[in-house]
Amino acid sequence: MVHLSTQGKQALEAFIDGVSEDPSTPPFVFAATTAEGEVYSQGNGFNSIEDSDSGLVDIDTVFWICSQSKMITHVAALQLTEAGKLSLDDPVSKYLPEFENLLVIENFPPPIDISTAGDIPTGPPPPPLALEDLKYHPATTVMTVEHLMTYTSGLFYPFTPVLEWNQDIDNAYSAPQDEADPVGGFIKVIKMGFPGIPLKFEPGTDWTYGYSSDILGFVIEKVTGKSLEVYMNENIFEPLGMTRTSFYQSPHIKEKKIEISYRRPTDGLLQPWGHRIYEDDPSKVFGLYGGANLLTSARDCLTFLRHLLQLHSNTLPPDVKPIISRETLLNKVFKPSLGPQGQKSIETMLGPIVASMGTGGIQWGYGGMALAMGNWDVEPGPGMAAKMKLRRGGSAFWSGFLNTTHFVDPTTGVAAVFQTQMLPPMDPTVLKIGGALEGILYQGLVG
Question: By CB count within 10 A, which of 39, 91, 236, 269 is most buried?
Answer without folding.
Answer: 39
